[in-house]
Amino acid sequence: MVTPEGVDLQVELADVGARAGALLLDGLIIAGSMIAATLVCVGLLFAAAAGGAVEKAFSFVGAAWLTVAFVLRNLYFTLFEMTPKGATPGKRIVGLRVAARNGGRLTADAIFARNAMRELELYLPLSFLLVEGRNLDAWSNLAGLIWCGVFVVFPLFNRDRLRVGDLAAGTWVVRAPRRKLAPDLSYDAGAGHARFAFTTAQLDAYGVKELQVLEGVLRRYERKTLTAVAGRIRDKVGWPAGPDESDGEFLGAYYAALRGRLESRLLLGRRRLDKHDKD
């Protein structure tokens, strides 16, 4: 996917199974919400009956129930997909989100379009079969089943696994894996690294580029690499290795001290890009 700024982003499309699972979860949430709303309405009617105001309460409770049903059917997907996460609760549980296929911002028009098509793809044929199917002949029922089947299997027959609503709105559903921030390597550079006191000259031997390389080495924490890098840095800055000094401890202490040095210089407007920068 290429963004309007020309950035090439690699995205992983959601597979059909994940999308079906998300739809099932959303359906369960909608059904559960309707059951809860129904129980609340029934409770209000019983309370009204005890107070002798059943007729007034019935019209109010009936209107409230219809409002909840309308919102859940027509606005559940739209409202949740208009949030910054671009996903319903079912999609968030499965790890999916809706995105614009052109790499731009997901607009309200696109969200309305893709969800308006759901009425044609899912709700209308199902309502037709479940409510009116008993009054129709076999050919009409068969036509309704074929109608449902075409929309259900449509994502299986296109490369980007798009449903008709995605085609109309210019959207697709992609995976949105939960990412965890890596721990700050200099967070615990206090008591454990207190015995490492580097001079200004030793810290000025490297710049931002070397700091980033050192951070990658510490995050991977491969023994052979640690030993090689620690040896090079000791030779460069003239640091004598102590008898009980491990390579990981030395590199962690040097990383924390170098980062602090570069950040303090940055506050003064001086940024050393690498060890060859003589700023």
Verbal overview:
The chain has 279 residues and is mainly alpha-helical. The protein has two domains: 16-175, no CATH class; 191-267, no CATH class. The protein has eleven helices and two strands. It has helices at residues 16-51, 54-74, 76-81, 89-94, 108-132, 138-153, 164-169, 200-203, 208-220, 223-237, 247-267; strands spanning 96-100, 171-175. It has a two-stranded antiparallel sheet with strand order 1-2. It starts with 15 loop residues before the first helix and ends in a 12-residue tail after the last helix. The mean pLDDT is 82.
Please supply descriptive tags for the structure shown above.
mainly alpha; two-stranded antiparallel ribbon; elongated; 61% helix
Widest sheet: strand ordering: 1-2
Total domain modules: 2
Radius of gyration: 31 Å
Biggest β-sheet, characterized?
A: 2 strands, antiparallel
Shape: elongated
Q: How many strands?
A: 2
Low-confidence stretches: none
Series of secondary-structure elements, N-terminal to C-terminal: HHHHEHHHEHHHH
Helix content: 55-70%
Averaging pLDDT over every residue, what do you get?
82
The number of helical runs is: 11
The computed structural class is mainly alpha
Distance separating the two termini: 39 Å
Strand content: under 5%
